[in-house]
Amino acid sequence: MAIRRIFETPDPILRQISRPVATFDDALKTLAGDMLETMYAAPGIGLAAVQVGEPVRLLVIDLQEPESEAKDAPIVRDPRVFVNPEILSTSDQEIPYTEGCLSVPEQYAEVMRPDRIRAKWQDLDGKVHEEPIDGLLAVCLQHEMDHLNGVLFIDHLSRLKREMVLKKLAKWRKEQAVDA
Ligand code: NI
Asked: Residue 81: CB partners within 8 Å, gap ≥ 6?
């Protein structure tokens, strides 16, 4: 496995529509492994393949607290892989969640999304799964699925709010450049 470069906004690759996965081979498993390693190293709780430069409908999620790595407790991993995910239905009820994204580093904003979804996806062997999903996993899955359609969480914000986030991102990058 290898840590891959994470593409950041405004890189145009993040706006591409990812293509369906058709072949469930070793290359797909390697890519998923690399994505998990890249996500854990970042650290983050979700990553879509397009974020590492591969516009295919594959994403990884692990909701375990990334901060647990800093403590003495052993790291308990709970990796989940979703291939060709689809949302079959969503609840009318929406909930706010403060989201972040490895492609919009160090920026956070509240996004409203349906709190329950019914999702269908394939695993790395091509087996089909269908389940109701709620809570943080529902939020995270919807965020990552947006990436497959070229959408970032900041696109859900008002124009004013989005411009504020992008301004803060530019400022943060400038500070990083000075520190380096
Ligand atoms: Ni993201």
From this structure: 32, 36, 58, 59, 60, 123, 124
Reported pTM = 0.94
Residue 48: φ, ψ to 5°: -100, 150
Q: Which of 8, 144, 163, 175 is catalytic?
A: 144
5 in a structural domain: no
* Residue span of the structural domain in which 95 resides: 12-179
Q: What is the CATH number of the domain that holds 16?
A: 3.90.45.10
144 is catalytic: yes
Cβ-contact 74, 11 below 8 angstroms? no
The answer to whether residue 27 sits within a structural domain is yes
Please give the tally of structural domains in the chain.
1
How far is ligand 1, taken at its centre, from the CA of residue 92, in Å?
Answer: 23
Q: How many angstroms does the Cα of residue 49 sit away from the middle of ligand 1?
A: 10
Measured in angstroms, how far is the CA atom of residue 152 from the centroid of ligand 1? 6
Average pLDDT of each block of 10 consecutive residues along the chain (180 residues)? Answer: 96 98 98 98 97 98 74 83 98 97 98 98 98 97 98 98 98 88
The alpha carbon of 162 and the centre of ligand 1 are apart by a number of angstroms equal to 15
